[in-house]
Amino acid sequence: MKINYIACIMLVLTFSTVQAQDNYEKLTISIGVVVSDLETSLDFYTNIMGMEETGELDLDGSFGKVSGLTGGKPLLVKILKLKNSPDATELKLVSFGNEKTDMDNHIQDQNGMQYTTFFINSTENIIKRIRENNIKFLGDTPIQLPDGRNFILIQDPDGVFIEIIGH
């Protein structure tokens, strides 16, 4: 009997990947963002981006220390979702009063999380909210993509780039 070693290796790799994927309890991830001003960022993500606050975590300094998150500082985490559903990705905002990030940059200027993409059905209302709140459109956006959808690029109050794609 001749064994096809390449087929065996591919089978093992496929099984390992499936096993790793089956290890996850949720099919979404929670993204934590440290912001300079919690209320300003909450206002942006709820009133401009249309997210809803779905909960919070009020963690004392001892948890911050033993978990390795803060070295001993307490933290109040505000949890936002596009829709209050267990299957929705969470955006977790927390502030330690750090200085605001330089807003005159591009995604290539820093490492780490630089942008978040929101896919929406209609861009009409969000464009209206962006303009009413004097938020700067970046580049020549809004622009139309080849597939007919609009592409909008703005920044949140701390300089995180926000891509908005929709009709």
UniProtKB/TrEMBL annotation:
- Origin organism is Flagellimonas alvinocaridis
Which Pfam families would you find in this protein's record? Glyoxalase
Query: What's the domain of life for this entry?
Result: Bacteria
Q: What is the name of the protein in this document?
A: VOC family protein
**Which GO molecular function entries does the Swiss-Prot or TrEMBL record give?**
metal ion binding; methylmalonyl-CoA epimerase activity
Q: Where is the VOC domain?
A: 27-167
Alphabetized, the UniProt keywords read: Metal-binding, Signal
Tell me the first and last residues of the signal peptide. Answer: 1-20
Gene3D superfamilies attached to this UniProt entry:
2,3-Dihydroxybiphenyl 1,2-Dioxygenase, domain 1
Entry's Gene Ontology BP terms: L-methylmalonyl-CoA metabolic process
